[in-house]
Amino acid sequence: MKIKFGTVAENITTRKEFPLKKAQQVLKGKTIAVLGYGIQGPGQALNMRDNGFNVIVGQRKSTKANSSWMRAKKDGWVEGKTLFGIEEAADKGDIIMMLVSDGSVPQVWKQIEQYVTPGKYLYFSHGFGLVYNKLTGIKPRKGVGCVMVAPKGSGTSVRRNFLSGAGINSSYAFEPNGMKAKQVEDVTKAIGIAVGSGYLFPTTFENEVTSDLVGERGILMGALAGVMEAQFETLRANGHSPSEAFNETCEELTQSLIRLVDENGMDWMYGNCSQTAQHGALKWRPEFKKATLPVFKKLYKSVKTMQEAKEVIRDTGCPDYKERMLAKLNELHNHEMWLAGAAVRSLRPHEAAKGGSDSAGWGGRKVVKAK
Ligand SMILES: NC(=O)c1ccc[n+]([C@@H]2O[C@H](COP(=O)([O-])OP(=O)(O)OC[C@H]3O[C@@H](n4cnc5c(N)ncnc54)[C@H](OP(=O)(O)O)[C@@H]3O)[C@@H](O)[C@H]2O)c1
Prior knowledge:
By secondary structure, this protein is of the alpha/beta class. It is built from 18 helices and 11 strands. A 9-stranded mixed beta sheet has the order 3-11-10-9-8-7-4-5-6, sandwiched between helices. α10 packs across α14, α11 (about 220-235) runs antiparallel to α12 and α12 crosses α17. The protein is globular and about 65 Å long. About 30% of the residues are buried. NADP nicotinamide-adenine-dinucleotide phosphate binds near residues 40, 67, 128, 154 and 155.
């Protein structure tokens, strides 16, 4: 259906137009092999399994506690039946879902290319593998349908929103690559519905990877954490307590304001706060925009010139990546703001009752150590 987003009308596919029953018909008899059981892998694989699709998981084996392999077993995937090594799963799959880390794609592609034969579909949740094929080496043979469904949220949310019934919005793109376009489009949309998307909106592989890399480096994670730290540290340097600095920087945002922005928009938020807050926010908004606009322009250029992709492959494709990242993740974990945050979260009535927010339940790797 056509929906107007501001001034531009876009074609949206909802579960009404493409119900789960239709998705099940389109994918009937097909084995869906999810390669990688990191963050997106579990979310999408479990949702599809619960939705009645024929899903298997391909994951490199490890007996280490909390390894992806062991987490897959814990989630009910059975070795030799629904859980295999990466190559075996790729061999068995009609739809091969590349949900390994982007940095490992060049290596994994070499392992599985022989199994990605005409008539099969190669799926991604990111444009990375195909758009940067000069770096990843991915050039599917003619007759392999290339499809992408990119959930606009963490794999943890893909699962949680599925369980709550909310769903998560995803963008989609497809490249028939010698197959019938309508058939590939239907398979793309069917997977989008199968993994639990709320609605699907069209994009291109190129636009997806560009906006996604900018978004996560920008407002969604990089900019957000950076701006939060800047405010927290300013308050702390001026004698405010960690608790006060955290509440004014993060807690009020996540527990109150952003929820209202989610429900009603920022315009409503500006109209429904104190006059003091409204006056000050209207005055300082352009200052922050002016200060950060050059950084966003620099970031966009770094993505467009493939600098970001080159660094991802160089730095995350190496075997000791996890150990090397741990130091940086530990630094973030042990920042006074997030230590204060853990204490603030443990005081929330519902968290205190269940023993702290670390017992958050499904999803998430434990990767950091407290000091
Ligand atoms: N994270 C998100 O929420 C999100 C959101 C939207 C789209 N995406 C896209 O979804 C895809 C998967 O992302 P992700 O975040 O779930 O991935 P991830 O957590 O970064 O990837 C982890 C998976 O890749 C495997 N892996 C890493 N190096 C490997 C290697 N050398 N050989 C074989 N397997 C290897 C890991 O196995 P081990 O555990 O054994 O290392 C694990 O199964 C990416 O294209 C990403 O851009 C992710």
